[in-house]
Design brief:
8-stranded mixed beta sheet, two-stranded antiparallel ribbon, 10 strands, alpha+beta, about 400 residues
Length: about 400
């Protein structure tokens, strides 16, 4: 493994950092998340059309750049530094890889170029609050999380005219604004129980019912920078993703979950690095007893511990991004666990070390603290991520250890 970044990769980081420093400060983030879409549409247009972020890891045949997960992770690290709200995670990290892996050639040709250009955004809708299970991050995703033949979740039935969906999905990332829904639904009844993915295209109406029978309501979430929605489907016409109903849907979801975990780990590392950087700046300026509080040994020790933790998480995230791009499996979850833990500890210490001002709800440290807590609720918790990785490697099963 060559740990040195290429000139192109460094250019991605530099360009994004310069852009986000100018256009995505804490106040701009607060304004963007309170908009109808939950993000700055002008900034998203710049990221998509000028920098090509949605198509960064898509093949050139579909209008993409043809890069790997590593480049997408580096871009997400910079977005994480500023907590820039955008549909990149839902569209390029979750939706596009599923379309690429499972979609028919007609579906890929019709949808992926529009995603690459930023014209179309996508969202992955799974039943209930099962996102982390569906992606195989905290447990086996071959179970009954999509309904399992019982009432609840999202059910699919085949008709003469195609497929119809009925049910509800919560915690759909950017689901209130996406132009395309990828819905995981249960079908086949009890005897032939299986989970399939379906495409639900427009017309979709935000915060109301569209003519397609879809109701989308944006939810109030702990982390405003990570928009979530509740999707209700009432006898909605849908299109099966791909041509083969026997495709290994669970395996593909787990693979996408592994690469998504690597990208999320890099994003969390960027956020942790930025909040640590801001804390160091503050303790150099804040004086107590006639000297900067950063000169006290106890504060130095705490910051040194945080620095070591952030750097360790960065190394894990970079390795996971490289490894998933190289075809190695089940590495993203551990990197995500370490990165989320680093962000949680770093952001909570930032609140403490900023003193009284750090405890005010309006301080930017709380944006990072809420991102840490929100990501653990969505993709963790950390101990479950580690437990599942240990089970997959058979560390405590008494059998041969996988290497």
């Amino acid at each position: 493994m060559d740990a040195t970044f290429t000139a192109e990769q460094e250019e991605i980081r530099r360009t994004l950092r310069e852009l986000l420093l100018k256009r995505c400060g804490p106040e701009e983030v607060r304004i963007a998340v309170r908009s109808e879409g939950g993000y700055d549409s002008a900034l998203w247009e710049t990221l998509a059309q000028q920098l090509g972020l949605p198509g960064l890891a898509l093949p050139e045949a579909y209008g993409g750049v043809g890069c790997s997960v590593t480049e997408l992770a580096l871009a997400s690290e910079e977005l994480g530094r500023s907590l820039a709200p955008s549909p990149l995670l839902a569209t390029a990290v979750l939706g596009a890889p599923l379309l690429l892996a499972l979609g028919s050639e007609d579906q890929r040709a019709a949808l992926l170029p529009r995603i690459s250009s930023g014209e179309l955004t996508a969202a992955l809708a799974v039943p209930g609050a099962s996102l982390t299970t569906a992606l195989g991050l905290t447990g086996d995703n071959r179970g009954d999380w999509a309904g399992g033949g019982r009432a609840g979740g999202v059910q699919a039935r085949q008709t003469d005219g195609g497929w119809r969906l009925y049910g509800q999905s919560d915690q759909v990332l950017d689901g209130h604004s996406a132009g395309l829904l990828l819905v995981a639904a249960h079908t086949g009844g009890f005897a032939r129980s299986r989970t399939l993915l379906f495409l639900v295209r427009g017309p979709l109406v935000r915060d109301g019912s569209g003519s397609a029978g879809v109701t989308r309501v944006r939810l109030t979430s702990l982390d405003e920078t990570r928009s979530q929605a509740r999707i209700q489907l009432r006898d909605v016409e849908a299109e099966l993703l791909g041509d083969d109903e026997s495709a290994d849907m669970a395996g593909v979801l787990a693979g996408v979950g592994d690469s998504a975990a690597a990208v999320l780990a890099a994003e969390a590392v960027g956020a942790a690095d930025r909040v640590l950087e801001r804390t160091v700046e503050y303790v150099k300026q804040r004086e107590q007893f006639g000297r900067a509080i950063g000169s006290f040994q106890a504060v130095k020790h705490r910051l040194a511990d945080l620095y070591v933790q952030v750097q360790a998480a960065r190394s894990a995230a970079y390795y996971a991004a490289w490894a998933t791009g190289a075809g190695e499996e089940r590495v993203g979850g551990l990197a995500l666990a370490q990165a989320l833990e680093a962000l949680r500890i770093t952001s909570s210490e930032a609140v403490q070390l900023h003193g009284g001002i750090g405890f005010t709800w309006e301080h930017e440290a709380h944006l990072y603290f809420k991102r840490a807590a929100g990501d653990e609720l969505l993709f963790g918790p950390v101990h479950r991520l580690r437990e599942h990785a240990a089970d997959a490697a058979r560390l405590f099963g008494g059998g041969e250890v996988a290497v």
